[in-house]
Design goal:
With about 210 residues, the chain is of the alpha+beta class. Helices cover about 20% and strands about 40% of the residues. A hairpin with a 5-residue loop joins β10 (about 185-200) and β11. The protein is globular and about 55 Å long.
């Protein structure tokens, strides 16, 4: 868990957030805690990665930084893949541009908990990941928020086939009664990240404490 803060000039923030919300709505924006993000990830895999050429082994999605922090709006969905030669790649799809694909970048994987060589990583079968199951994971994570803190947003979620904890989630919370501080005419929203691990059966565990 890491403490973070962001500074907003409230009048400007309201204008920017409204504008971003309208753009996101027109381009099919969605929330990081919604089942729709799971469906979008499945749609992107089927449309962009031929299983005869690519083995998708990881996916993650997150809300944005800056003005999009704490909104829970999905700004990107990223995939990691292995090609037929065992080389690792990543590609990110951006919500604000109507889910257009970013550059296909070669990358290097850190050693997984289960496998030494990326060639050995099993393919990620998103069809077996139920959107309702994801919603339950989010609710289970919220239930583990320590007393005195309030949920603000799902910051990020990731899933892979090569670690002992195949799924991880980060949730943003604020401390009740201490959500903001003001200085020099600006307001800072003080919030905290809670890190969760999720096993293959969907059991959610809060890692560490505030």
């Amino acid at each position: 868990m890491f403490k973070k803060s962001k500074v907003l000039v409230l009048a400007l923030a309201a204008l920017v957030l409204t504008s971003c919300s309208e753009v996101a709505s027109k381009l099919g924006g969605m929330k990081t805690d919604s089942p729709e993000v799971v469906d979008k990830a499945k749609e992107l895999v089927k449309a962009n990665f031929d299983p005869a050429k690519w083995k998708v082994v990881s996916v993650d999605w997150s809300e944005g930084i800056g003005q999009d922090e704490l909104t829970g709006k999905v700004t990107s969905i990223r995939f990691y893949m292995i090609d037929k030669d065992g080389k690792a790649w990543q590609q990110t799809f951006i919500a604000s541009t109507g889910w257009t694909a970013g550059d296909l970048d070669d990358t290097s994987f850190a050693k997984g908990d289960k496998y030494d060589d990326p060639k050995e990583y099993p393919a990620l079968d998103l069809d077996k990941f139920d959107a309702a199951k994801y919603t339950k994971m989010v609710e289970d994570a919220k239930a583990l928020i320590p007393k005195g803190y309030t949920f603000k947003s799902v910051d990020s979620f990731s899933m892979n086939t090569y670690d002992k904890a195949p799924m991880e989630m980060v949730i943003n919370v604020v401390e009740e009664g201490k959500e903001t501080v003001s200085n020099a005419g600006k307001t800072s929203i003080v919030y905290y990240e809670l890190d969760y691990s999720i096993d293959e059966n969907g059991k959610v565990t809060l890692k560490g404490s505030i």
